[in-house]
Amino acid sequence: MAAWIRTSDDDPLFHVGGKPFRVAETLVAIYVGAWVALALAKAAGVGDIWVHLFALSTAQVLQHGWVWQLVTYPFVNALDPWFVFVALILFFFGRTLERAVGRRSFLVLYAGLTIVPALLLCGVAFLTHTPNFYAGATNINLAFFMAFALIFPEAPMFFFGIPAKWMAIAWTAVLTLIYIAAHEWTYLMVMWVSIGVAFAVLRFPFLGEWLQALKERQEEARLARQRAKAAALQAEKKAAEEVRHQSIDQILEKISKTGMQSLTRDERAVLEEARKELLRRDAAK
Q: Which residue has the higher pLDDT, 107 or 205?
């Protein structure tokens, strides 16, 4: 049995106009929204600020703690017609992968493809004292396609009918040669790390299962804390009730010895509260 068997359902997160939105569709919507926002920022003359804030700059992460860039850099895509191709790949292969492996594994895959390469770039920059810059969803696109080819190796691709596995091999080889020729070592490293992450998540589904088990343990711990808190409150209430009864007994004994006029204001208040409590109990019977 394949290692990428589903581990959760694929119920939509929400609906818009009757159209279901799962994780993949939601991500594509965010990508498109971010691209439009960048275009408007460029038109307003502040596009560079947008890129500076959200693209991955290892110098900013390491020196200034801009850790959000570890997850925002895929949403900073070039303002060119190829973005349509980027969005379509994310939509088609992302949706297919989510339905094939389930929401939880898909989320693990996307998180790994986003965070692991970013952390690696930061680690390399820290060790070599050489800053790195990265933006766009190229690595996620390729990794989604590789994951698709792993699950459906014989699926015909587009109009050519070429099996997905051969398209994946060809795409990887071409990009590898292009990056080597251009000395784009950052992009080359990110590409191969992303492929490795996709392979690991799909072939070792215990990653998603481990996250689910962690979530269940956290839920159990939360329920245990609630039960302990409820038990503590109950014990505190019981102790207070016992103290009140002891106080009433002492007040009654005082009345028997010295009369009602000897009671203080607080003692009279305790006695009155006890009387009201008895009346409430009698009314409830």
A: 107
Question: Of residues 213 and 63, which shows the higher confidence score?
Answer: 63
51 alpha carbon, distance to own chain's centre: 23
- Its sign, for the CA torsion 193, 196, 201, 205, is negative
Run of H or E including 283: helix 265-284
Fold of 14-203: Rhomboid-like fold (1.20.1540)
Please list, residue by residue across 162-174, b when 16 or more beta carbons sit within 10 angstroms of its beta carbon and e when fewer do: ebbbebbeeebee
pLDDT digits (tens, 9 = 90+) for 18-62: 777 788 889 999 999 999 999 999 999 998 999 999 999 999 999
Structure tokens at 132: 């790195």
Which pLDDT score, from 0 to 100, does residue 151 have? 87
Mean of pLDDT over the chain: 82
Q: What pLDDT score does 86 carry? A: 84
3-state secondary structure of 134: strand
Q: Can you tell me whether residue 19 is helix, strand or coil?
A: strand
Q: Phi/psi of residue 203, each to 5°?
A: -85, -15
Closest CA to 46 of 57, 55, 38: 38
Q: Percentages helix, strand, coil for the chain, rounded to the nearest 5?
A: 75, 5, 20
Q: How far is CA 220 from CA 59, 104, 215, 226, 228, in A?
A: 40, 19, 9, 10, 12
pLDDT of residue 133 exceeding 70, the answer is yes
According to DSSP, residue 6 is labeled: -
